[in-house]
Design goal:
With 475 residues, the chain is α+β, with helices and mostly antiparallel strands. Helices cover 25% and strands 21% of the residues. The chain contains 14 helices and 16 strands. Strands 5, 6, 7, 8, 9, 10, 13, 14, 15 and 16 form a ten-stranded mixed sheet that branches. Strands 1-4-2-3 form a four-stranded antiparallel sheet. A two-stranded antiparallel ribbon has the order 11-12. α4 crosses α9. The chain is elongated. The relative contact order is 0.13.
Length: 475
């Protein structure tokens, strides 16, 4: 609600649903705002006494949204798990709020504005009149970077901050490419976006990477939001399946806390009796078969440099006293065995280490994942492709036609019928908290018992080449 008839301004609109509106986290939309003007003559009498020169009167101000209480991601994660937690006692400073509202602004620039005393705060105070009635008075004063904010305080920055160059979109997609990107969506609500990552598509950009899911999502999957979806976990480039992204800064922070705390909790060996609010299930086709049909793998991992520093790999490292080793835990069970020597496994990582499933399968179970030449090269060299069969002959015509997808992707080739195998590792099922509903409940009351919220269950279909392998081994 706008306060004061002589104070025209437009608050920064987050365009979030009511689910995230109570969180108080503001969306970065610096370059989407309309120009707002406010002269010093509209300031309170106390403020104009300090800034009453003619030059100041012509100044223009950039208005941030009213300060609101923010959501503590760790506290919310604990509530979802039904665990005891301590409410965060730290206060939000003016510097933190400006950086949260306008992440495009360099931190050094914001700090300089505070040092030069060019930042103002509008606050409300109740005054008692002579007749005993109370009147709300609006005060606008300078504010320091470390000053704490109260609910409803409004920050004003010099309009010069809008002179920053506007960011340009890096990707121009064709209609076919845009349709393909949006066809990857498995689930979307006001807080979460979940994609079915195709194999061969990197999750993050980097040197030599032309297309990555995080950049494509930022460019084309924002919809009516003024901020891009954010990654909260990773998948290997050659693997496929469920990829979770937070649609807002708040939901991304909560989801990241959930993924991070699950790893930390499992590393502390408390995974047996604790409620698991995050469950991930991968499907993998491996060479050979484990000795036991199901079990728990608990083996620390460590990165080692090979080829004279040209590359690295993850390996099992028994000495847990070495700081660089990371505890890793994986549950597994056999889904189906094949007379051809392959086995389908269900893998449930309780920690989120790099290449964890691939190393545990290859080095602990002795059954490397099909198509994993990095950790199962020797097994693939010894392995013979399936013998000719009527099924293979019938499939040859179909498999020879490569269905090229946008961005140079091809998910048809690479099954067990072909000489060059692709990685058969797919994140097929995930159960995670309904973060959107949790944030909506917190908007109405902080006393909600979030541990009883229903979870989201997401299932991602296999890529074509893995489905082909499945069909062949089950025929």
């Amino acid at each position: 609600m706008l306060i004061g008839a002589n104070l025209p301004r437009c608050l920064l609109r987050s365009q979030l649903s009511a689910t995230d509106g109570g969180s108080g986290l503001v969306i970065s939309a610096l370059h989407q705002l309309r120009s707002q003007y406010r002269t010093a003559t509209e300031l309170s009498a106390e403020d104009t006494n300090h800034e009453g020169n003619s030059e100041e009167k012509e100044s223009k101000w950039f208005t941030l949204p009213p300060f609101a209480k923010t959501v503590n991601a760790s506290v919310l994660r604990a509530k979802l798990a039904g665990k005891p937690h301590l409410e965060a006692g730290d206060e939000t400073t003016a510097l933190k709020w400006v950086l949260k509202c306008c992440p495009e602004l360099p931190r050094s620039l914001v700090q300089k504005l505070f040092r030069l005393r060019q930042v103002r705060r509008e606050s409300k105070a109740m005054e008692v009149c002579d007749d005993g009635s109370q009147v709300q008075k609006i005060q606008v004063k300078r504010i320091g970077a470390k000053d704490s904010l109260n609910i409803g305080d409004i920050i004003f920055l010099p309009m010069s901050v809008r002179e920053l160059p506007e960011e340009k979109k890096e990707h121009d997609c064709t209609a076919e490419e845009l349709n393909f990107i949006r066809s990857l969506e498995l689930y979307k609500d006001p807080a979460i976006l979940i994609l079915n990552k195709p194999p061969g598509m990197p999750v993050q950009g980097g040197v030599g990477i032309k297309w990555s899911l995080d950049e494509l999502a930022a460019a084309w999957l924002c919809y009516d939001y003024s901020e891009p979806p954010r990654l909260v976990h990773r998948l290997d480039r050659d693997s496929s399946g469920i990829l979770v992204m937070g649609r807002t800064q708040t939901s991304a922070a909560v989801l990241h806390s959930i993924f991070r705390e699950e790893t930390i909790g499992a590393s502390k060996h408390d995974f047996e009796g604790e409620k698991k609010i995050l469950q991930k299930r991968y499907w993998a086709l491996v060479i050979g078969s484990p000795r036991r049909p199901k079990g728990m793998i608990s083996a620390p991992l460590r990165k080692v440099v090979v080829d004279d520093g040209k590359s690295d790999r993850i390996t099992i490292f028994d000495d847990t006293k070495i700081m660089s080793s990371q505890h890793a835990v994986t549950k597994y069970r056999v889904l189906k065995t094949s007379s051809h020597g392959y086995t389908w496994l269900e893998l449930s990582p309780l920690t989120g280490r790099k290449h964890q499933l691939r190393v545990h399968c290859a080095e602990v179970l002795g059954t490397p994942i099909v198509g994993d030449y990095k950790y199962g090269w020797q097994a693939h060299r010894r392995w013979q492709n399936l013998p000719e069969s009527d099924l293979r002959k019938k499939s040859n015509g179909k498999l020879s036609k490569e269905n090229m997808l946008p961005f140079g992707l091809n998910v048809d080739s690479g099954s067990i019928l072909e000489k060059r195998l692709r990685l058969h590792l797919h994140c097929g099922e995930m159960i995670l908290p309904d973060v959107s509903q949790a944030l909506q409940n917190l908007q109405t009351s902080t006393d909600h018992d979030l541990s009883y919220l229903k979870s989201l269950k997401i299932v991602a279909p296999l890529p074509s080449y893995m489905q082909t392998s499945w069909d062949i081994l089950n025929s």
